[in-house]
Write the structure tokens for this entry.
Amino acid sequence: MQSFDIAIVGGGMVGLALARALKDTGLRIAIVEGTTPSKDLSGDPDIRVSALSRASEMILKNLGAWEAIAKHRNAPYQAMEVWEQDSFARIEFSASQMSQPNLGHIVENRVIQLALLEQVEQQSNVTLFMPHRCQSMAMGESEVWTTLDNGQSFTSKLIVGADGANSWVRKQQDIPLTHWDYGHSALVANITTEDHHAKVARQVFTSQGPLAFLPMNEDNLCSIVWSTELPVLKSWRRCPMPNSTKR
């Protein structure tokens, strides 16, 4: 049976970033991830993206992952505009006002994950269990025994739950979770717009909920995030997708 200092359950952006940050510690690290991400980025952009701030960029540079991110569909944005549809409330700011080259970048989650994975795969102190899922976990006085879906087992002194909102690790330990329902559901999609987004991130607050337009790497391509009431969302899904969207 293999023994590790740290077992990270979840090989997404968070779990891989943690493993990479521990590259020079000498700690023995296991990463368990149920899905192997596809390395083919030749198709359409994924719909799940992250808005990386300048601080996040510096973290990823220190982890050695930024160069790989910059080679792919990395979209820097130069300004932000936020307004309320039914009032005069509005705020705008730009990178030039802050003497910065940009305010951040819109990057597909998979691009970030793959860039981190490329670095982690080179670490001699990391063992990847991918694609595998945890089947059981038993806590001892000083160790955790983890069994995978292929029957393989290992021990670790610490286990980290980096496996998302519905964390398997959290459920195994009955860690309480405080949550509440806002009565909204989120719709994410990539859309083609009639107008050039001009590298500006925009968000409008409407009576049906906030709608954000995040500029992608193509001039007329945006990632949208719309948080709205479920009845409105169901009605919208029955409508044909428009060919273009204008602000």
